[in-house]
Amino acid sequence: MSDRNQHEEEASRDRRHEAGGAARSEDVGRAEDRDGPGVFVPPPLQFGLAVAAGVILDGNAPGWHQLTDLPQFAGLVVALAGLGLIAICLGLFRRFGTRPEPWQPDQALIASGVYKLSRNPMYLGMALLCLGIAMLFESLAGIILVGVALVVIDRYVVAREEAYLARRFGAEYDAYRAKVRKWL
Description:
- By secondary structure, the protein is mainly alpha-helical.
- The chain has 2 domains: about 1-35, no CATH class; about 35-180, no CATH class.
- Helices cover about 60% and strands about 0% of the residues.
- It has helices at about 5-20, 45-60, 70-95, 120-135, 140-170, 170-180.
- Helix 3 packs antiparallel against helix 4 (about 120-135) and helix 4 runs antiparallel to helix 5.
- The longest helix has 30 residues, at about 140-170.
- It is elongated.
- It starts with a helix and ends in a 5-residue tail after the last helix.
- The relative contact order is 0.17.
């Protein structure tokens, strides 16, 4: 970047700061952290496609039984638990001023609340939500495909995120990682 362009970018950032606006994520942090962990396919999309494909493969898409049936009721409870966990995680992201999207740079390391119990409670919530949906539709293929999606997310999303967080937060993340389990 030329000196003139760099100066213009810094002046623009200063004007936003003076006007009370927050700096954009690309204006914050070291250069190597600006691109985030490099996650390409959003995990909610991966989980959603898995459960949808399973329900369609089982032929259970047209409808479900009454919620008085035990499998559907259990599915509802599991789905609501997952939704609740996602909501708690989103609240923590908001409180700490960082974005939940794994392709965005992180502004803070969240190590409180449910993140004291698991390094990946958001993905656990997504998995529970989709597992509950598969149970609502009595979809064995959906249950299996949600499990497959969880493995794919562990290998291709969580692995990238953890490498990124180690670079971004250094010893602070290493200490957190040593203390808190990856999943449960």
